[in-house]
Design goal:
By secondary structure, the chain is an alpha/beta fold. About 45% of the residues lie in helices and about 25% in strands. The chain has a single domain, classed as Rossmann fold, CATH 3.40.50. The strands form two sheets. The chain has a five-stranded parallel β-sheet with strand order 5-4-3-6-7, sandwiched between helices. It has a two-stranded antiparallel sheet with strand order 1-2. The longest helix is centred in the middle third of the chain and has 35 residues.
Length: about 160
């Protein structure tokens, strides 16, 4: 990636990863990033990342449970894949409205771990993620992905909180 002179200053093109899911907070973070970061630096490359949680089904102990759990697993996996496609399409549409070209990626695994790993693999300069605005107790119980990323990502992390 090269650099471009903006306002008399050199700006090194950056790779920005925006983590998205099906939440309103996630799309707000993407929109905020498009309006406040990308518009000012169009030479930056932009990756939208959706971390798809692995599908877990606990099977019973008899053969009929095995058959139904296999069907349930297939159905749940299809639903999760459809959701991942929907999330990326929604995010890509938002980017197209801002005339921003993006690379969309779906990776499977625990979202916090997947996002931090992909930041490393992609050699990201910045990670942008949304926040549900959970309190400390709720965050401890539900495991905040944004908090995990702030603690573990190998690049600066911008957590965008949606106004109430």
């Amino acid at each position: 990636m090269g650099s471009e002179e903006i306002g008399g200053e050199k700006h090194k093109a950056r790779k920005i990863v925006v983590a998205v899911d099906e939440s309103e907070e996630s799309m707000y973070a993407l929109s905020w990033c498009l309006n406040n970061i990308i518009v000012r630096h169009p030479e930056d490359s932009f990756v939208i990342l959706h971390a798809k949680r692995p599908t877990v089904v606990y099977s019973g102990f008899d053969n009929s449970a095995y058959l139904s759990s296999h069907d349930a697993l297939s159905s749940l996996d299809r639903r999760d894949s459809d959701m991942a496609c929907w999330v990326l399409q929604k995010a890509e549409k938002l980017c197209a409205e801002h005339d921003v070209k993006v690379e969309g990626r779906v990776e499977e695994g625990d979202p916090g771990d997947v996002i931090c790993e992909m930041v490393k693999v992609l050699k990201a300069d910045l990670l942008v993620t949304g926040s549900h605005g959970y309190g400390q107790l709720t965050r401890a119980i539900l495991k905040s992905v944004s908090h995990h990323c702030v603690q573990n990502a190998g690049c600066p992390v911008l957590v965008v909180k949606m106004p109430k």
